[in-house]
Request: fold
Amino acid sequence: MRILLVEDDRLLGDGVKAGLCAAGFAVDWVRDGEAALAAVAAESFAAIVLDLGLPRRDGLSVLSALRGAGNAVPVLVLTARDQVADKVRCLDLGADDYVVKPFDLDELAARLRALARRARGRAEASLRHGDVVLDPAARSVTLRGEPVVLTSREFDLLQMLLDAAGRVLTRRVLDEQLYAWGEAVGSNALEVHIHHLRKKLGADLIRTVRGVGYMVDEAPR
Reply:
């Protein structure tokens, strides 16, 4: 899951980015409000972690601009402002969650997973497709009840495909969500990950839509 972190404090930003990356997120980090809006205009993110006290353009202005443009990306406000009035204002402007510093990184990761889950209209935390069950919080996958060992990238790719079951995801969309800025990506990396997932979970789980991308069919009801 690709996240945009908007935080001007370098020490805190380093810690949050490292913690979220360790939890399985692909994190892009910008340090001011104008850069945040430019990033959202150019890229697609599953969620935004937004500080309020930003240079060039503050967090409230960024939030207002996003919602005014009709952008529904989930936004979690992460700030030292703990007054009820600040929380109310952010939520009324369109924030989806509000976390006060200091905070626990595990809780932050859980809140981001919940935001992404609600944005996709899912109530259950786990993703199920036939005999395959994926638990985002534990970052575990089972096949017919037996654990399956996946690399971090394989897990993220499988989660994206299961989340979008019934829809084709293009190579561009998959690459954009799997990799943060500056990560080295081989030209055939996606195909290699798909090949490994098919070997581990069955050749029929992931379907290639030639000239378009990949998909997992909707699970039978």
